[in-house]
Amino acid sequence: MSVALLFPGQGSQHVGMGHEIYHAEPASRAVFDLADQKLGFSLSTICFSGPKDELTDTVNQQPALYVTSIAAWRAAQTKGWPLPEYVAGHSLGELSALAAAGSMDFSDGLYLVRRRAELMKAAGEREPGAMAAILALDVKQVEDICEQAQRETSKPVQVANDNCPGQVVISGDRSALEMATTLARDAGARKVVILPITIAAHSALMNSSVAEFSEAVDGTPFVTPEIPVIGNVSGRPLTSSDDIRVELKAQLTAPVQWTRSMRYLLDEGVDTFVETGPGDVLLGLMKRIDRKASRVKLMESI
Predict the structure, then answer these.
(1) Last residue within a domain, chosen from 145, 172, 197
(2) Mapping DSSP to helix (H, G, I), strand (E, B) and coil, where does residue 79 land?
(3) 94 and 39 inside one domain
(4) What is the domain count for the chain?
(5) 91 an active-site residue?
């Protein structure tokens, strides 16, 4: 058996996440308690009790998912789970993967995640945008549609996530995105879903925060990962601290190449994928990428 841990991104959160492992596992409790101490407020209370609006605020949502995911992995380690062959994380989850792989200290990662969230929210306030999921078109069709919408509106819109065959998320200026969704329906998309978010993640509308986030990345100590981490942008292992910095800086405006990343792992012989955090979004995507792969939800297995 060859195992990859998968760490989720925004959208997998829910009020109550982490509550059970906090009370059941001292290792998990220590992660939440340290996060509360470092941040100077009770992130654990937001995770466990909400309110939902506070949890889904980007500045809380991103660190909440990071902390819950690492708390789950720490609990699994105390129960004797072996190190996996690979780790990967979707968007924000890539930072969780880096912490799990020993490439950055948990506290350093927490500060970087919080800064990332603050800067993405600020970029979204300066240049509001939108995101939409398009079903049943391939990524090349969606790329062509976005290019056409950009030409006709002179506004940015692009592929943000290539999640799995038949599920592509686009991101950008609302007017360009609305045109792209119309073109997608005309091209035969089975469904188009406007996502409940005003931040155009993984698009050019994040450009205004790239310089400040790059400074935060450069100020974060990284070491070579103990476990290979598959990058979102490259879809390949990040083998050095330089690779990691380049990857994280590019990630704000570049698409998440999730399909490519998962196919790389499959080609490397990985046959078991373990979602290490709240929800099971990534397991659902893996089912679309390769139905034969074994899928495990860690939070139900510890």
Answers:
(1) 197
(2) coil
(3) yes
(4) 2
(5) yes
Residue 30 exposed, middle or buried by CB count within 10 Å (0-12, 13-18, 19+): middle
Domain coverage including residue 290: 3-125+205-300
Catalytic residue among 12, 28, 44, 91: 91
Summarised one tens digit per residue, pLDDT across range 41-84 is 999 999 999 999 999 999 999 999 999 999 999 999 999 999 99
pLDDT of residue 301: 81
Which of the listed residues 142, 166, 197 is the one where a domain comes to its end? 197
Q: What is the pLDDT of residue 70?
A: 98
User: Do 113 and 219 belong together in one domain?
Assistant: yes
Q: What is the pLDDT of residues 210-239, one digit of tens each?
A: 999 999 999 999 999 999 999 999 999 998
Strands 167-172, 157-164: pairing is: antiparallel
State whether residue 217 is helix, strand or coil.
Answer: helix
> 281 and 287 in contact (C-beta within 8 Å)?
no
Indicate if 191 and 219 belong to the same structural domain.
no
pTM confidence score: 0.96
Query: Residue 28 phi/psi, 5° resolution?
Result: -70, -40
